[in-house]
Specification:
Pathway: Steroid metabolism; cholesterol metabolism. Keywords: FAD, Flavoprotein, Mitochondrion, NADP, Oxidoreductase. GO terms for molecular function: oxidoreductase activity. Helices cover 35% and strands 14% of the residues. It is built from 14 helices and 15 strands. A seven-stranded mixed β-sheet has the order 3-2-1-4-15-14-13, sandwiched between helices. Strands 6-9-7-8 form a four-stranded parallel β-sheet. A hairpin with a 2-residue loop joins β13 and β14. The longest helix has 21 residues. The chain is globular and about 75 Å long. The protein binds flavin-adenine dinucleotide (FAD).
Length: 407
């Protein structure tokens, strides 16, 4: 409408959920400004600090995010933390709608004795370390022993295993940070155990990650045959993706039995109830966890996510009434599962709900709102600042023969 004020929308978190939602909103609402505030000085969330360096093709989603960021009605405010530099209350006064997409940046814990011993680390920290997350550069994982045990069998566990077992020369061509390459080049690790509480039929890694592991040069994947006793019988009834994954595990197992029957080191370890695995380093890889960063958020502590219905945040858990103008998407809304594609589909869905609510006046946009200005936040990183960081990183990478060296 001619006289209605500009619709101001704030997105908290510049990961995939935030960027995909921004893309959808900017395309759908004619007269709107989307401001993204981000805790870190740099954008892209887990695409930059989670996705493994040897998965450069996955990071191509950044091209799409860049296009969104170049839209004239998009603003980036990096180095601004919700709950510290600004409160949710303030954001809600400044914007017609607020979309929370600040992800899951803590870890789930096992809650067992000795979990916090020096050589027990979370895989999240290990991943953050090799990916150059500010604050994790001094993690100093102990790579002086022969064996590492990873607790968990999801894609993150497989990523960590692959990083530990890949040749450093191969990793030098990736954007693995220099300090991590240096440490990995001195690594004595030869053996990585992936420990899961359930069996092959519940393995949480995907077939792509398994294939990569099976093809890793100079690495042999060893299965415990006992784990597979009942598995073939279940094959016909499995859904297709799980069936293909299980078939690949069985194929790899059969190759192991035929080629290695005389090799003592590859025999299954006899078990009763307890396995003893010698490991100088243990990585706990049982999942990420979201936290409540502002008292104004209706947060499900047990589920580790924001209470919501189809992305509309609830006022409280019991009444089920919606807190109008407040939305959640990405891992913060769904829990920390799913790949970027899943996150994208979810974020598009929530962004559609938000736009529908504005178009149908379910969310009031009749009064004008102030939005944000860079100067209000102190040491803010804008998109043009990020451009300069990006250029400097690419230049530093060129000298080292890699795509970038992260600052
Ligand atoms: P995030 O990517 O975590 O983004 C959240 C953003 O919010 C971050 O930038 C964070 O800094 C910011 N933030 C946090 N707190 C605040 C605050 N208080 N104020 C402001 N900003 C805040 N998917 C694939 O498709 N392929 C892969 O190969 C792959 N590898 C992965 C490897 C690892 C180790 C992990 C953990 C995940 C991987 N994924 C992969 C999954 C993918 O990363 C997620 O699906 C996706 O990143 C979730 O997006 P998000 O926007 O919800 O969260």
């Amino acid at each position: 409408a001619v006289n209605s004020p500009t619709k101001r929308i704030c997105i908290v978190g510049a990961g995939p959920a935030g960027f995909y939602a921004a893309q959808y909103i900017l395309k759908t609402l004619s007269d709107c400004v989307v401001d993204v505030i981000e805790k870190l000085p740099v954008p892209f969330g887990l695409v930059r600090f989670g996705v493994a360096p040897d998965h450069p093709e996955v990071k191509n989603v950044i091209n799409t995010f860049n296009k969104t960021a170049e839209h004239k009605n998009f603003n980036f405010f990096g180095n601004v933390t919700l709950g510290k530099d600004i409160s949710l209350q303030e954001l809600r006064e400044r914007y017609h709608a607020v979309l929370l997409t600040y992800g899951a940046d803590q870890d789930r814990e096992l809650n067992i004795p000795n979990e916090n011993q020096p050589n027990v680390l979370s895989a999240r920290k290990f991943v953050a370390w090799y990916n150059g997350l500010p604050g994790e550069q001094d993690l100093n994982p102990n790579l002086s022993g022969r064996s590492v045990a990873i607790l968990g069998q999801g894609n993150v566990a497989v990523d960590a295993a692959r990083m530990l077992l890949s040749s450093v020369d191969a990793l030098r061509k990736t954007d693995t940070t220099e300090y991590a390459l240096e440490a990995l080049s001195r690594s004595k690790v030869e053996q990585v155990y992936l420990v899961g509480r359930r069996g092959p039929l519940q393995a949480a890694f995907t077939i792509k990650e398994l294939r990569e592991m099976l093809k890793l040069p100079n690495v042999q994947t060893i299965w415990k045959p006992d784990d597979f006793t009942d598995v073939p019988a279940h094959l016909p009834n499995l859904p297709r993706p799980r069936k293909r994954l299980t078939e690949l595990m069985l194929k790899s197992l059969s190759e192991q039995s035929s080629s290695s029957s005389s090799n003592r080191a590859q025999r299954p370890i006899p078990t009763d109830k307890i396995d003893h695995l010698p490991a100088e380093l243990i990585l706990r890889s049982i999942g990420y966890k979201s936290t409540c960063v502002d008292g104004g958020i209706c947060f499900d502590d047990r589920g580790g996510r924001v209470f919501n219905e189809s992305g509309r945040v609830l006022k409280d858990a019991t009444s089920k009434s919606v807190d109008k103008g407040l939305y959640v998407a990405g891992w913060l809304g769904t829990g920390p599962t799913g790949v970027i594609l899943t996150t994208m589909n979810g974020a598009f869905g929530v962004a559609k709900t938000l736009c529908d609510d504005i178009i149908s006046n379910e969310v009031d946009t009749s009064s004008s709102k102030a939005g944000s200005e860079a100067k209000q936040y102190g040491r803010v990183v804008t998109w043009s600042h990020w451009h300069r960081i990006n250029q400097a990183e690419i230049k530093a990478g060129e000298r080292l023969g890699k795509p970038r060296e992260k600052l």
